Amino acid sequence: MAATQRPRTWASTYYVKFRIFAGRILYDQPEYNGWHYGSRVVRIGPRSLLKRTSIVEAETMALVSRLTSLPIPRLRHIWVDRSVQQDGRKMCWVIMEYMPGRTWDQAWPDLSSNERDKIQEQMRNYISQLRGIRPDGSPDGYVGPVGNHHCWDYKLDTSQAYGPFPSLQSFYDHLLSTAEKLNEPVASNIHRDLLNAAHSHSPSSQTIFTHSDLAPRNILIHNGEISAILDWEQSGWWPYWWEHSKSLFAIGSVTEEVRKLWSSFVSETSPVYNAEFDLDIGIYEIVGLQL
C-alpha cells in the first residue's frame, strides 16, 4: 500500500484520541448542510484529516491513486483495528490529506458556463479512468471490493457480511433473494430482465470499477475545477449500471433545484442505463425501501 500500515496498539489509540480532542479545539470541523461528522471525521491540522473507516476505503484509495489521475486525498498513516464489524468490515483509522473546496451542490450554482463545461469534462474523464480498472486475479464478472473483502453498500443489507461474488449472476441471485420471497412473480421478471440486459455486454464489461457513492457531498470544487473526490468505502467492481443508479439514489437531502441540476450532471458525465435503473427501483419498491 502507498501508506504506512501497522497494527493498532494502546499507544496509538491514545494518540488518536488526543488528536481528535486537540483538532476539535484548534480547527473548524467538516460539515455538510449543518450536519457534523462527530469523531468519525476530524480535521487535525491545516492539511490533515483523521477518519474512522474500513480498510477497504484505504486500500481502494491507494489503488485508484496509483492507477489514475483522480484527485484523491493522499494517505499518510493507517492504524488497523483488530476488531471486525458485524457486517464483515475491518476497520481502521487513517490520517489523510485535507482537501480544499466546496461541495458540488454548494459550488455549482455559482459557476460560469465555461467552468461547468470544464468540470463535466473532468468528471467524464475520471469515470472513464475508473471503468478501466480491472480486478487483479479475479474472473470476469467479479462483484466485490479491492482485496476480495466482503461487499458493503448501504443500499443493500448492512447488518451482515456478504460476498464477494465470482460472477454477475451470483450477485443478482443475492440482490433479488429477498424480493423474490416477498413477490416472486415480479421479482423473477426483474431478475430475468437484468440478466438479459447483461448479455448485451461482453463478460469483461458486465462489471466495472465503480465509486458507488458519487453524490454532491463527495465532490469538492475549488478554483473552477474538481479538487477532490471523497468517500471510497463502497467502491469496487459492481454491475455496469451501478454507478448511474447509485448516483441518483445517493443524492441525499437536497433541494429540488439541486436534484434537477445533479440529475443533468449525472446524465452528462457518465453512461446512462435508464432501463436498469427502472428495474432497480422495482426491486426496492418490493422490499419497501424508497429511492
From TrEMBL:
Q: Name one Pfam family in it.
A: APH
Q: Which domain of life is it from?
A: Eukaryota
Q: InterPro entries per the record?
A: AGP_Transferase (IPR051678), Aminoglycoside_PTrfase (IPR002575), Kinase-like_dom_sf (IPR011009)
**Iron-sulfur among keywords:** no
Q: Which CDD domains does the entry link to? A: APH_ChoK_like
Q: Which residue numbers delimit the Aminoglycoside phosphotransferase domain?
A: 35-243
Q: Which GO terms describe its molecular function?
A: kinase activity
Q: Give the signal peptide range.
A: none
Stored Gene3D superfamilies: 3.90.1200.10
Keywords, alphabetical: Kinase, Transferase
Q: Which PANTHER family match?
A: AMINOGLYCOSIDE PHOSPHOTRANSFERASE DOMAIN-CONTAINING PROTEIN (PTHR21310:SF15), AMINOGLYCOSIDE PHOSPHOTRANSFERASE-RELATED-RELATED (PTHR21310)
This protein is called what? Kinase-like domain-containing protein
